Amino acid sequence: MALRRTADDSQIAPYERFGVRPLSPTVGAELTGLDLSQPLDHDLQADVHRALLEWKVIFFRDQSLTADQQIAFARHWGEIEQHPFLPKGDSDTVQRFEKGDKMGGYENEWHNDNTWRLAPSMGAVLRAIEVPPVGGDTMFADTAAAYDNLDDALKLRLDGLQADHDWINTFGPSMDPERRAVLRESFPTVTHPVVRTHPETGRPTLFVNPNFTTRIVGMPADESAELLDLLYRQSDRPEYQCRCRWGTGMVAFWDNRAVQHYAVSDYWPARRVMERVAIVGDVPF
Fold first, then answer.
1. Euclidean distance between the first and final Cα of the chain, in Å?
2. Could you say which residues of the chain have pLDDT below 70?
3. How far apart (Å, rounded) are the C-alpha atoms in residues 250 and 266?
4. Spatial contact of 7 and 53, defined as CB atoms under 8 Å apart
5. Are 194 and 216 in contact (CB under 8 A)?
6. Distance between CA 38 and CA 234 in Å, rounded?
7. In terms of Cα–Cα distance, which of 201, 204, 118 is closest to 160?
8. Quick one: how far is CA 44 from the chain centroid?
9. What is the CATH number of the domain that holds 108?
10. What is the DSSP secondary-structure string of the chain?
11. Residue 24 forms beta bridges with which residues?
12. Left, alpha or beta for 56 (phi > 0: left; psi -120 to 50: alpha)?
């Protein structure tokens, strides 16, 4: 019987229907004894959700899921998000990441998913279809712990700051100008708090990332760049991270409001094939 922390850390409550193996003190845990191809009843879904809030990213080894079963699992947490830029898998709501000798990995940058949306993803479910014999790990950084460990003066400086987020520099360069112009109309630059409040736990989390954050609003460009670089490096610290070593069939489910991730591109020319389902989120505050 695994134990979970409650909102009141003085109390301990059990996870009775699955095991929990933490990967680090604050972020990442493997849940054992679950078959994600089967529907979750209400109580089981609630316990998996509590584990997600506690560990921010949870892993399930040795699963055998179809794309439809992956989508069905994700739907327990909300509406499925369609992505306008990434290649699709077996469904319009599945994004496929397929790399090999003709295309190496390029996602190796810390980021939250889709912060260029007005309502960024709540979370994502990633399924490993084919993994390299070595390498191709994914790292996750606890952005609540990263914020907690800033000094008080910097926390005060960040209070109330807003930052612009945009997709154009990440996805735009590979598009023809006509498509880029059409998508720009649908997805303009958005503004989010530099420190967002998690809507369920109430914890403050750093919410800027080098993939999509372009500037801090109302701040001179050089000062904005310096402050953003400092905040990016704060999430780089190994003390706030865990590392996932994938196996075929493994599934990861992360809370996009509370972690950033980094796909390690060290496996070329081996193949790595993953499929992701993202869940619609809410507007950060």
1. 36
2. 1-12, 107
3. 19
4. no
5. yes
6. 39
7. 204
8. 22
9. 3.60.130.10
10. -EEEE-SSTT-EEEE-SSEEEESSSSS-EEEES--TTSPPPHHHHHHHHHHHHHHSEEEE-S----HHHHHHHHHTTSPEEP-SSSPB-SSTT-EEEEEBTTB-----S-B-TTTTSSS--SEEEEEEEE--SS---EEEEEHHHHHHTS-HHHHHHHTT-EEEE-SHHHHGGGS-HHHHHHHHHHS--EEEESEEEPTTT--EEE---TTTEEEETTS-HHHHHHHHHHHHHHHT-GGGEEEE---TT-EEEEETTTEEEEE----TTS-EEEEEEEE------
11. none
12. left
Residue range(s) defining the domain that contains residue 221? 1-285
Domain count, the chain: 1
Question: Are 58 and 95 a contacting pair, CB within 8 Å?
Answer: no
pTM equals 0.93
- Residue 101: both structure tokens together: 């000798």
Q: What's CA 164's distance to the chain center, in Å?
A: 19
Cα distances (Å, whole numbers) of residue 11 to 8, 191, 198: 6, 38, 21
Q: Which residues are catalytic?
A: 111, 113, 261, 276
CA distance 29 to 25: 9
Lookup result for tokens 């591109």:
265
Query: What pLDDT is attached to residue 7?
Result: 43
